[in-house]
Design goal:
Layout (H helix, E strand, L loop, with lengths): L2 H16 L4 H13 L3 E2 H8 L3 H13 L3 E5 L6 E5 L3 H29 L6 H30 L4
């Protein structure tokens, strides 16, 4: 692997990490972009220095996100992987899914926290409840903007 390829892999790994995914997801995308055509699972694994089983597990998520597609070629028993769809649209989808998951978890956590306020002194309970309600309002506001982002058609 040359210096330019390493930089590309590191860049995509960093992007994947920054939105809460594995660096391996980014390296897979980088390798497929560099190659410019479908690659067998074995070729891809060797190219990015990960085991075929690790790559295969990561491919499942990338396929769900619509970034890659697994294909079989006639008269060949190997599994091939190719880029699929618009990369920026897929990145948007990945970000939206990650944030939506965090929003749902935050709202559940706030509900649980409200139930835990029963043992607090009245003034403290009132102050904490007001804080939780304020945070819920901001999370719902964030959810509104995430839903708008999800609807935007990229050029």
């Amino acid at each position: 692997m040359n210096v330019v390829e390493t930089r590309i892999y590191d860049t995509f790994a960093g992007i994947a990490s920054s939105i809460g995914y594995s660096p391996l997801h980014g390296k897979i995308i980088g390798a497929l972009i560099i190659e410019g055509k479908s690659m067998s699972l074995q070729q891809l694994s060797k190219k990015i220095s990960y085991s075929p089983s690790m790559v295969s597990i990561s491919l499942d998520l990338l396929e769900v996100l619509g970034i890659v597609k697994k294909v079989k070629k006639t008269a060949d028993r190997k599994l091939y992987i190719e880029l699929s769809g618009d990369l920026l649209e897929c990145l948007k989808k990945a970000v939206v899914i990650r944030i939506e998951k965090s929003i749902v978890q935050s709202l559940k956590d706030f509900e649980a926290a409200k139930k835990e306020l029963d043992g607090e002194p009245p003034e403290e309970r009132k102050r904490l409840l007001a804080s939780i309600i304020s945070l819920e309002k901001e999370i719902r506001r964030l959810d509104h903007y995430i839903q708008l982002l999800n609807k935007i058609q990229l050029p």
